[in-house]
Amino acid sequence: MRCRAGPGADLPPADACLELSGAAGAARRAPARTATGGTIMLAGTVSPGVALDWAAQDVVRGLLTVRGVHNYTPADLAEAVAWTGSAAARPPVADVLGPVFPPAEVDAALAGAARTTALRGGVRPLEK
Q: What angle do CA 47, 72, 88 make, to 5 degrees?
């Protein structure tokens, strides 16, 4: 789930776009790179003078959530990572997720996604 503004920008929009670099171009393109109902999080664009030039209608019609994060610490990141493993972070994915494939079968996962009515397909991460 990352926002790509450079090479590979032809990827489909992401559910979440995290701008951490301070690159104004990445922040400007965030609404176009974020899927309907997605979230844009700006943390790197803290320098004065960065004009985003977003059209309000793109945010409203896209049902986008925009958040700014400032002065975060390593402890904040640790808390966020811990939260992602909590029950609160687990949506009822069974209602929207189709079959889940191992990484070696990613071609089958993509082919299956084209034939299913599920909202999302799954590729299981590699075990450590």
A: 130
Q: 16: closest CA among 70, 65, 55, 62?
A: 65
Domain boundaries, the chain: 1-73, 88-128
Per DSSP, the residues of 97-116 read: EEEEE-GGGHHHHHHHHHH-
User: For the structural domain made of 1-73, what CATH number should be given?
Assistant: 3.40.50.720
pTM assigned to the model: 0.54
For residue 14, the one-letter residue type is A
In angstroms, rounded to a whole number, what is the distance separating the alpha carbons of residues 51 and 46?
11
Low-confidence ranges of the chain (pLDDT < 50): 1-2, 4
Buried (b) or exposed (e) across 25-39, using 16+ Cβ within 10 A?
ebbbbbbebbbeebb
DSSP classification of residue 44: S
